[in-house]
Specification:
The chain has helices at 2-57, 60-71, 88-95. The chain is mostly helical. It has one domain (2-70). It starts with a helix and ends with a helix.
């Protein structure tokens, strides 16, 4: 009888320990799932933004914008003007006597 009682207590302790482990594991997995869902939402928003940009840059206006910004192209009827910014320290040095 005493053996059965000890065996029951040992089984109860073992099962309780496993149950606690499973519960904590479940909470960690739920937290990880929420984190992954948030990352997925961010990735989907970025994907939509990239799709929108791709659509725009496949239009004549988008191609023109890229050519102007990245390659320095301009239209035939335009006169290119290059703005040279001076360093503020050089500007103050040139005014001193």
């Amino acid at each position: 009888m005493k053996k059965n009682h000890l065996l029951f207590i040992a089984a109860f302790v073992y099962l309780t320990g496993n149950l606690v482990n499973l519960i904590t594991q479940e909470f960690r997995l739920q937290k990880y799932t929420v984190s992954l869902d948030q990352e997925l939402l961010v990735a989907r928003k970025e994907q939509e933004s990239l799709k929108t940009a791709l659509k725009y840059f496949n239009t004549p206006q988008g191609i023109e914008e890229l050519a102007r910004k990245r390659l320095g192209y301009y239209s035939q009827n335009e006169i290119p003007v290059k703005v040279i910014e001076s360093n503020p320290s050089q500007a103050t040095d040139s005014t001193s006597p």
